[in-house]
Amino acid sequence: MTLETRASEGREVAATDTRFSINQATIKHASLPDAVRTVADAGLASIGLWREPVAEFGLAASARLVRESGLRVSSLCRGGFFTVPEGPARRAAIDENRRAIEETATLGAPALVLVAGGLPEGSRDLAGARARVGDALAELVDDALAAGVTLAIEPLHPMYVADRAVVSTLGQALDLAEPFPAEAVGVVVDTFHVFWDPAVEQQIARAGAAGRIASYQVCDWNLPIAADPLLSRGYPGDGHVDFERITRAVAAAGYEGDVEVEIFNQQVWDTDPAAAVRITVERYRELVHPFL
Amino acid sequence: MTLETRASEGREVAATDTRFSINQATIKHASLPDAVRTVADAGLASIGLWREPVAEFGLAASARLVRESGLRVSSLCRGGFFTVPEGPARRAAIDENRRAIEETATLGAPALVLVAGGLPEGSRDLAGARARVGDALAELVDDALAAGVTLAIEPLHPMYVADRAVVSTLGQALDLAEPFPAEAVGVVVDTFHVFWDPAVEQQIARAGAAGRIASYQVCDWNLPIAADPLLSRGYPGDGHVDFERITRAVAAAGYEGDVEVEIFNQQVWDTDPAAAVRITVERYRELVHPFL
Question: Do A158 and B158 touch (CB under 8 A)?
Answer without folding.
Answer: yes
